[in-house]
Amino acid sequence: MRIAHVLNHTERLNGHVHAAVDLACAQAALGHEVSVVSRGGSFDALLKANGVETIQIDQRRRPLVALTAAVELTKLMRRFDIAHAHMMTSALLCYPACKIAGVPLVTTVHNAFERSSIAMAVGTRVIAVSAAVARLMKERGVPASRLRVVLNGTIGSRRHADLSEPPIALGSPSILSVGGLHPRKGIPDLLKAFEIVNATIHGARLHIVGEGPYGAQYRSIAAAMPCASSITFHGPQEDPRPWFKGADVFVFPSHAEPAGLVLSEACEAGCAIVASNVDGIPEMLDDGRAGILVPPKNPALLAKALIELLTTPNALAEGKKHALANRYRMSLDRVVRETLDVYNECLPAYVPGAVKV
């Protein structure tokens, strides 16, 4: 199959890009002819090393740039059997190009909490990264007949090929957070919760990996807390898995989260998990069997869950075991297989129940 993944860029900035890169590399490994169309970025070398063609088309939201991109995409799409858009601008630019070329367009909705995500409804099929995202898109008017759910999963990603890297020494008891430093991720809630935990559990430490526009503000908040010496901001890390391996508990206190990729990385490392019971997080954690779910925006209950996990005999070991068991649901192989099924639905020769391409 000739597949074109279309996105704004290939920089190491967000889950949209990571998911698209994972998918492209894995599809190429299966023998498909795969191209990534973007303005380029830091993942281009990895894509080329995995047999994925990179095609540079600037898709920024500037009138002349967008018009040029639309023309170039229209010429390009005739080369492919399927186009797969992962960002809103790319989807809107691909839609007329695919119509003219007669190529089905598949879109993936990553951030349904953004109202503008309705733009992804232009797809022949619209992939939601969790059932929660699918429900929201259906409420916004996307027909169920065009919606398909492919739950996120990263285990087996070519982005992290080396599994032998040793754990980061974080000590014990250690609590880890990995993600962007902005309000949606709930870092202020985590800081408040950790203040309670630190006052209860001697030696508890909080490690925060990631960066974002609110990084300076969150560091300032932490510096003014009584437990400031027990909180460390480590900045962004290219591969978070050694951090998961070195931590006792991974905390994911998001206020909104379609299906965070870091949850599958935490499961792969066998790190016990406490996360917000919101959006796609329960699905990623097998409805709470692979991690403890707490209400979002509630530092007191988050602290209570962490204290119980860290002080109840065998609770931490059980939490790690259940997270590790969930890794089979989080495989990239499953994501690729289910995505190819969606592609096949869009092709003229598709027969339900037949052997897939």
UniProtKB/TrEMBL annotation:
Sorted UniProt keywords: Transferase
Any GO molecular function: glycosyltransferase activity
Pfam family membership, one: Glyco_trans_1_4
Keyword Transferase found: yes
Alphabetical list of SUPFAM superfamilies matching this protein: UDP-Glycosyltransferase/glycogen phosphorylase
Domain of life per record: Bacteria
InterPro entries: Glyco_trans_4-like_N (IPR028098)
Domain Glycosyltransferase subfamily 4-like N-terminal: 14-153
Gene3D superfamilies named among the record's database cross-references: Glycogen Phosphorylase B
Protein name stated in the entry: Glycosyltransferase family 4 protein
Species in which this protein is naturally found: Microvirga tunisiensis
